[in-house]
Amino acid sequence: MMNLLAHKNSYPAWGKMGYAGLFFLLWLAAALPAQPTTLPLHADGEYLLQRMAILSGDTGAFHNELRPYLRSDAVRLALQMAAGDSSLSPLGRRDVQYLLDDNSEWAQACAAGPDSLALRPRRNKKGLLGIFYRSPASFFEVNQPAFHLRVNPMLHLAAGRQQGDPELVFTNQRGLEVRGDVDGRIFFYTNVVETQARFPNYVNQWIGDYQAVPGAGFFKKYQSEVFNIQNGYDFNLANAYIGGHLTRHVSAQFGHGRHFIGNGYRSLLLSDAGNNAFYLKLSTRIWRLHYQNLFLELTPISSAVPRPANSLIPKKYAAVHYLSLRLSRQLTVGFFEATVFNRSRQFEFQYLNPVILYRTVEGMIGSPDNVLIGFDGRWNLWQRVQAYGQVLVDEFLFSALYKADQKGWWGNKFGWQAGLKYLDAFGVDHLDLQAEVNSVRPYTYSSFDSLNSFTHYSQPLAHPLWSNFTEFVGLVRYRPLPRLSLCGRAIFAKTGDNPAGQNWGANPLLSNSIRQADYGNNIGQGLGANTTLLGLDASWTLYHNLFVDLHLLWRHKNSVDDTRDLSTQVFSLGLRLNTWTTHPDF
Question: What domains lie within the chain, and their CATH numbers?
C-alpha cells in the first residue's frame, strides 16, 4: 500500500491526450457519417443476438466476441434471421420483433418488409398524452432526417430476505438513459443511475476485503431508520460516450464504460466484472476481420483505500488489442494482447501504436510493463451448437511443465476456458443449455509492481474470482411462454484464499514479489475452499423492457479454515424498467 501512496502525485488525469482525443473525434464526426450506438451489456437483446448468430449460420460482419454490440447489427441480424427462415416459431418471430422495436431508429428501412413477418418497428396509435411512448421501446423520441433521439427512464426496485438476517436485502435504482445521433455524423449515449443497495453476506464480505463495491466506483455507507437498514451502500453508476466513423470501415468511440471479449459467461481476457473506465476505442471491420483497439485510463485502488487527505487517487493505463478473424461461416479465431503500465505524469505514447504485437514496443523502450496475450475461438455446429474457448498467458516457461526441479514455477501464469452451448435443446423451442469450465493459475494478472496488475479500482478486469481457481458453470435458459423467461445457474469453484499477511497468488492487487514460494505452486493453494452457488431467476414481461422478477439464491463456501465458511440463502422480488440484471457470482 505504501508503494501505491508513494505515487500519488505522479498520476494525473488523462490530461492533454484525453482532450486532444475528444476534439479529434468531434472534428472527424463533423465530416463523416455516424456509427450506431450500442446495446447495454446484459440487455435481453444481447442474448438474442448471440442466439441468432448461432441459429442463422452466417453473421456477416458481426463478430459476437466483442461486446457491447451495435444496434445496427441487432437490426440487420434480426432481418436476416427472419428472411432466411420461413419456419420461425412464434417465439422466434417475437425475438425479431423485439429487436426491431428496441432499435427502431436503425430499422426504418424495414417498412417494405413482408406483412406476414411484421418486419417493422411497432407504433402506438396515440401514445401517452400524444407525446410519450409513441413506440413501445421509447418514453420520448424524436425522428428527424438530421436528428434522432431516444430518452428512457431507468428503474430497478427489488427487496428480499436473507435467511438469518433481520435486515432487508434490496436494490433501489433510478436513472435516465439518452441516446441519439446528429446529422447522421455524431452519435452519443449516456445513462446515469443512482443506487442504494444492501447485498447478501458474501458480497458484503468481499466489499470489506477489497474496499470496493463490485461493478461500482465511489461509494459511501447507507443507513435508513425507516426500513431499519444499517449497513447498505450508496453509489452512482454512469456510462457515456461519443463517436463516429473515421472511414467507411474504421470507427472511433470516446467515453466511459465497460467492455467484454469472448463468447462465454465469463471472460479471461477482458470482462465487465469491475467498474467503468475512461477509454478511447478504435474499431476496424472489413472483410472477415474485426480489429479493436482500446486505450484505458485505470485506477489501481478504490477511493475507499486510506490515503492522505485531499490527494488524487493514483492512475495507471492499459492498451488492449483484439483481432477477430472468421476463417469460415462456422469457425472464428481471435488474438488478444494487453499492456498495463504506469508512467510519471504522462501516458506512454508509444502504446498508441494501433498495430498488434506490443512485445516489440515493450522491448524497444526497456519497459517493465505487464503484458498479457491470449487466444480465443468459437465453432458453430449444425446451427444449434457452439463450442468456444480462451487461453490467457501472462507469463509462461514451457520447461517448467515437465522438469522436476521447475514444476509449479510461480511465473507460469496462465488460464484457460472451454465451453459449449446447445440451443433449442432436444427440439424444445428456446430451451438453451450452456456448460463452461474456467481455470486460472496462481499469480496470474499480477505484477511485481501492484500498480501494473490487470485490475481497475480494486476490482478485476477479467474473471471475478481473480486467480488461483478452477470453476464449472452450468446455465439453463428457457422461455415456456412468450412473456415468461427462466434462467437457472449452477457454479462450482475450487479456490485458494490468501491467509493474513501471505500471498499464495489469489489476489492480483498484491505484488507477486512477496510470493510465498518459487516452485510447487498449484491451483487451490493457500487456504483451499469449495464454493457452490445455485440461482434461479424468473422474469415476467409486463411491457417492453418492463419486468417483474423473482430471484432465488443459495450459496455455500466450505474452507479449510472453518472461520471462512459462509452460507447464503436469499429470496427477492423486484420490478425492473430499462435496467439489466447482473449477478455477483463469485
Answer: 2-577 (2.40.160.130)
Q: Which residues contact 562 (CB under 8 A, 6 or more apart)?
A: none
Alpha carbon 203 to chain centroid, angstroms = 18
Using only the alpha carbons of the chain, give its radius of gyration. 24
Share of the chain above pLDDT 90, in %: 70
Cβ-based neighbours of 287, under 8 Å, separated by 6 or more: none
From residue 334, alpha-carbon distances to 170, 291, 391, 394, 525 in Å are 40, 9, 10, 17, 31
Contacts for 396 with CB less than 8 Å, ≥ 6 apart: 411, 412, 413, 414
Closest CA to 330 of 57, 532, 9: 57
- CA 61 – CA 204 distance, rounded (Å): 42
Residue 514 in 3-state DSSP? helix
* Pairwise CA distance, residues 310 & 146, whole Å: 45
Match 485490475 to its residue by C-alpha cell: 455
Strand, coil or helix: what is 378? strand
Per-residue pLDDT reduced to its tens digit, 245-294: 888 899 999 999 999 999 999 999 999 999 999 999 999 999 999 999 99
Phi-psi region of 577 (alpha: psi -120 to 50; beta: other; left: phi over 0): beta
- Give the rounded percent of residues in the chain with a pLDDT score beyond 70: 87
pLDDT in tens, 355-368: 655 555 554 444 55
- pTM more than 0.85: yes
